[in-house]
Amino acid sequence: MNAPFRTPTRLAWAAGLAAALALPGAAQAVAITFGTAEFVTIRDCTVAGASGCDEISPILQGSYGGLPGATSSTAFTTLAGYGTAFGSVALSGTVGAPVLRAAAVSEPGKRTSTNSVALQRYTYTGATSTVRHFGGALTYSQDVTGPYPDGIGSGISAVIDIFTTTEASIEVGDTAATNFQSLFGVSGVDGYTSLGTDTYTDVLDNPAGVGALGVSVTLNPGDSVWVWVLLQTPAANAGIVDASSTLITGWDVATDLVPAATAVPLPTTLALALASLALLGAVRRRG
User: Measuring CA to CA, which residue among 194, 132, 131, 206 is closest to residue 159?
Assistant: First the structure.
């Protein structure tokens, strides 16, 4: 996984990920109405081919972040000779809207990648029907050495999906790994119905990238909708994909929208600080 996200194949991605990362033993059920999760990975380019990274190995090293029901999460991994990847998510925007940060740096013949996911349920308490827009503003820079085949990927990718479900909550297991798998594959929840989705991708060199994406929905009194946001930063074969300047999301009008989780501070954990320092050091060494 970790290639730029494509909405039509979302269930296939989730199924493939669950199979690849299946853990022994049965997880306990934990039901959530909001959540955050991270998965960062390091791999080898096993076949150089025409692109310099036509095929990649299974995951050599990875790290999950975000326990079930966490309002913020971070993950970081680094390996000498391979590169560094880190990400963070927090429901810290207006009325708990997700803010996502991620970056990956890879050495020649290697591939690093991040997957940052946020989920938030909102209930509309207004007295009349209204149209609202949920959007994201993305600031990033990247040095892409591709293009690369599907399944390898390099460059920024972000997705917003607003959906409803017949379920009042979503089960995510009880570990960081099952939490990530469930949030990444949330379109498999019973009664899932997408109200709208939008994707932003950039696979070219871009030292000062700015992107936008968003979805408009009609809300009726009492409606509950789920907002799902994904940020991915695969970096292959000496690539740098830096979205640490954030993907900030939010509603155009937040009035009468009650979030399942209220706003929380951005993560300031030691892991995120170390990840930022390691990334900056890697970029400077190669600059």
Answer: 194
